[in-house]
Amino acid sequence: MGAENAVDESMDVDILPSTSGYRNIKDKEKDKRSVHLPWIEKYRPQVFSDIVGNEDTISRLAVFSQHGNCPNIIITGPPGVGKTTTILCLAHVLLGPAFKESVLELNASNDRGIDVVRNKIKMFAQKRVNLPKGKHKIIILDEADSMTDGAQQALRRTMEIYSNTTRFALACNNSEKIIEPIQSRCAMLRYGKLTDAQVLAKILEICKKENVSYTDDGLEAIVFTAQGDMRQALNNLQSTHNGFGHVNSENVFKVCDEPHPLLIKEMLEFCTQGNISKAYGIIEHLWKMGYSAEDLISNIFRVCKNLPIEETLKLDFIKEIGITHLGMVDGINSLLQINSLLARLCQRALQS
Ligand SMILES: Nc1ncnc2c1ncn2[C@@H]1O[C@H](COP(=O)(O)OP(=O)(O)OP(=O)(O)O)[C@@H](O)[C@H]1O
Ligand SMILES: [Mg+2]
User: Fold this and answer.
1) Would you say the pTM of this structure is higher than 0.70?
2) CA within 20 to 30 Å of 144's CA: 41, 111, 260, 290, which one?
3) pLDDT at 31
4) Cα 120 to Cα 74: distance, rounded to the nearest angstrom
């Protein structure tokens, strides 16, 4: 049992970045292994203070974790902003060394039908674990929006009956998929996308630690493609670094397989001059490179948002882009549709 724990502990520590200057042989061995870890795991925050963004919510959780009496919680928000990370930090801070025996973690890769709620979750809730006064066992239900309604219904009473010994922590992308009665039993914490500055600060820090060679426009491109998703930012940074050895915007857009925003910007500028044939030339080139209509339209929108043009014209542009996007979601996604968008943009620009 002791030996088993030792192995597990060393595996846990393995994903921690080294924080002290002191390095022994064991550390070096771990470093060798951690070379092959994806950076999203290598740099997964272990304490609340390392989690970027959503400060209000995280500071509230930090207070809960100090007092020990945490309510049932649901963290909801877009992918890659730190929901799972936060729950794991909370459980580690609350339970410390007792984490292993007093936390049950289930995510979408586990079967979580009604039987699992009736058996596994209930069994765990009934299990006796010696914890200090005021601490509770924690059941983590990650990606809870993929649980069936039946399983969620079965959870309702379980949550109440075992409330003196067990707490639930749920994470999901879409809070509408969590049934009302479960929502009413939990404190709902909403996470928003991270800001560009927050993503940039984190990737700069990692570039320094990993000795990544980069240019400013390369990091800007990473932030642009990540759209507030820290996981995507780290993955794209690592892929570009591994694939090309140098992070500049060209390489980033090759790795992320997105149309280069400078081309899109140029295209929109031709539209503002009413020059449809040149604008169409660029779109046709991108289309031939194999980008889908959805790729193009979402990129056109993101570039248009920051385009230095008159505000009323920009609003008109965004409206037209929105209407075209609506059509594409309905399945009308031909090159002709994008061409018609360009024609309307040119028309708007000439009218203004
Ligand atoms: N706020 C953050 N601060 C620092 N790193 C972050 C943050 N959010 C995400 N990350 C990085 O991204 C990785 C994935 O984050 P996490 O698993 O918490 O995302 P999630 O919000 O649970 O996403 P999903 O909805 O897809 O499950 C982490 O391992 C970490 O490296
Ligand atoms: Mg998650």
Assistant:
1) yes
2) 41
3) 54
4) 20
